[in-house]
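This follows on from our talk about sequence and fold. Please put the record directly below this note.
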Amino acid sequence: MAKKIKARIDPVESQLRFEANFYGDWYSESVLAAYLSEQSADASTSPLVQPDLDDSSDQKTVVKK
């Protein structure tokens, strides 16, 4: 018996793909394309690097010597 690989399924993407295939109009296809490009842009951006903070209340960055 082969193991099934569970992929992360995005329900919004699935719905947009269904509508684009069902209607086949430019609007549905452009909405899907915009959603996919937004998702890929979000995935490609790395989280911002947070500076090390010292224990003081004013939260100044730690100066490493």
